[in-house]
Amino acid sequence: MADWEVVIGLEVHAELLTKSKVFCGCSTEFGADPNSQVCPICMGLPGTLPLLNKRAVELAVKAGLALQCRVNQFSVFARKQYFYPDLVKAYQISQDDLPLCSDGHVELLVDDTVRRIGINRVHLEEEAGKSLHAGEDIMNAAYSLLDYNRAGIGLIEIVTEPDIRSPEEARLFLEKLRLLLQYAEVSDCKMEEGSLRCDANISLRRKGSSAFGVKCEIKNLNSFRAVQRALEFEVERQKALLEAGEAVVPETRHWDESQGMTFSMRSKVEAADYRYFPDPNLYPLEVAPSWVEAIREELPELPDAKRDRFMEQYGLSLYAAEVLTSSRDLADYFEECMEDIQDPKLVSNWVMGEVQRWLKAHGLEAADSPVKPKDLAGLLRLVQENAVSNLVAKDVLEEMFATGKSAHTIVEEKGLRQISDDESLEAMIAEVLEANPGPVEDVKAGKSKAIGFLVGQVMKASKGKANPQRVNELIRQKLQV
Amino acid sequence: MQLNEMTIHQLRELLRAGEVSSWEILEAVFAKIDAVEGEVGAYLTLCRDEAFAQAQRADEMLAAGETSPLCGIPIAVKDNFSTAGVRTTCASRLLENYIPPFDAAAVAKLKKNGAVLVGKTNLDEFGLGSSTENSQYQCTRNPWDLSRVPGGSSGGSAAAVAAGEAAAALGTDTGGSIRQPAAFCGIVGLKPTYGLVSRYGVVAAADSMDHIGPMTRDVRDAALMLQAIAGWDPKDPTSARGDVPDYEASLTENIKGLVVGLPRELMGNGLDSEVKEAVFGAANLLESLGARVEEISLPHAEYAMATFYVIVSAEISSNLARFDGVRYGYRAAEAEDTVSMFIKTREALGQEAKRRILMGTYFLQAGNYETYYLKALKVRTLIKEDFEKAFQRCNVIISPTTPTAAFAFGHKTRTPVTMYQSDIYTCTANLAGIPALTVPCGYNQAGLPIGLQIMGKPFDEETVLRVGHAYEQHAGLPRRQPQTEVKTNG
Description:
The structure holds two protein chains of two kinds. Chain A is an alpha+beta fold. Chain A contains 15 helices and 16 strands. The longest helix of chain A has 20 residues, at 224-243. In chain B, 39% of the residues lie in helices and 13% in strands.
């Protein structure tokens, strides 16, 4: 790759988290029976007219603000025209040359350096319906079924500048974008439900060149991993062509996940002309500066600011702060727990470690955790008080996730309270020392490592309940080392 | 005079006095329909059973003290208004069996007032035409001379009112489609200000030019109909907020001191001499009533036709694209795949619809957009400004409604541009969005009616109606009935 520079730009579609559709009152709930959430307007029946959902505008503006965009006081809805069975009016109400938001950026940490990816625009538009093809694939389908529940759901399209320089950077950008949109509560960004979708444009050029190479558009990217893999494939494909002295054909290519390859779909030379023109039913959208400011007030602390604050306020490392702010839920979880237990290191280690582990195992988000921050605080208080060992605490947390019981209840019911009184510990230690003369000799001979083994044996004998620190101290006293 | 020939306000008095019932009025209307409809062909769908049920309900409402002047009045509705449970074809094969699940806002308002829906009237397919010859179902004849067209696209509505097949009708007007057929059929037609009447539920031809309005026997009836359908509607994003005045109260006969503009640009271009004479006659009458008639200029009016057809075609090409056979209406059989289904289905569109779609598609293409569409939008602004300037001096502007009286069938179908020129005086008001009324102002030698157009400032329907009413009251035109009367009854 020494000679080539990769140039990538992304087009991302995110469904807005509004309760009703963008031009009618139908519900946007995912997973309802086909065609149960439709009305004459979103079915495009003749004579119906679009009624703009104010909340959709607010969320689109919010997205623009989270992406550091300028919000344009006047923007225009335009018709993007093409024939497709899932497009009820044969045009999509979208925005063309005058979008709602322009000129923003997103900052990424790539290999410890900050990379700034420009955002060309964020505009508001409507979703199409969904086609379901009978049989294996669209070309050989005997018939197609149409579900218009999705038709008319509010959507934002986010277009980046061609600032992305590697497939990995493309994935990192998407992760950051999702984080920002989730923080701002603009979209739930679920790729598997189709509420976040991404197309990628990629070209190669000689390093040092300022002119762009011929680009291809990659579609059917259904996960962040797919974005990175498809772009990696495409880098190699284009490089091979260019190095063989052949030309890259400007075209739209389809990513095949199972084969790990992209395939040509259609040439860009015969690209569709969407015949955009301003929708005569919708007057130019005016977003007054005072409205923008009111929406800005709604915007929560964004991840970068939160990360910096966590480092400052709690003395966390960059790594810990990044992980904890990687979801708004997790950050909130951490901070709520901190209200009860003022020990950032302890809390951050547990939240990043065990809590995340069990959340993942149960397929839950932090907000839906059966173990609430105050429950975790209850457990960590027992750890702080040496009432349970770290090891036992981990088991207790697992139990808390499984049963929803409090740490205190589990510890009492199972008699897990840590043994810290010297009398009980000394009895156990005496038994272990007697049973392990070898290691005892090793310790006495100065091999301090063997102490660990002896402590472990005591822990085992106590079923993990012994206070390991005190056991360690008592063994050292006993053996006079 | 027969009940089916009376005005709304005459019927209102009879109904209030209990002298007739809505049922009896409707019987008279259907008797007339049964007698002449075979020749006139105004209706695509008759709602006989529903209408009598509505008449019965209206009689109950009247007995209970309902005061709406439309209660119990039989009204015809152009077949591009959605009507719940009643097929709405737009005179197109593509919507042959389309039954909307909802009423257009204007229809819902009429129903709420107790009006009786007689049926759905013929039109040029999707409202594209000026003679109703572009209907894919039937021919509508001008009741004044059955060898002539009724005008269009609201030809069915105009013919129904003229022939006594309804007391009044709703029409739509994108470039003159209420006023031109009203003038051809010797009735009153009003295109209100853009935004005054909700467009919700009316199948769009060109959204930025489509208007809904009444077609009636006199100006007072137009005021009564407008009263019922005007007003802000949250379902129409282009609907205007603001109070609706009492239009009937504006019908004083006093027009003293009003300035009436007569634009020289709207008096040329193939204007028939008899029409010209009638309009000058009307201008003289207005002067004799105390108005001051002044010749004015609308310098950009000569570009109105071209501007109008670029914008209208662009919007039509977009609006008619949804009729693809997927969800409702006609679907061509035996398509091999989706694209061929689209193509075969849309082959069922009529010639004029196809012509406008092709033109509009061309105007919006990359590379043509700036040259045609964007330029047309700019000229549209200039035309609006011409009117604004003129209305600084004038209270109303008058002109002929059409260059000629009703023409014969087939006369203009071969040369679309001559057909388009039927709208030459009317389409400027659609570009500017201003109110425009047509009232009968005489008959030519052949006995065909001639229309006088009265245009006003935006949302100043009151002055437009007042001038129209004053003219009508003093013109002393004989209240002639169309020829069909003689033919069928005599």
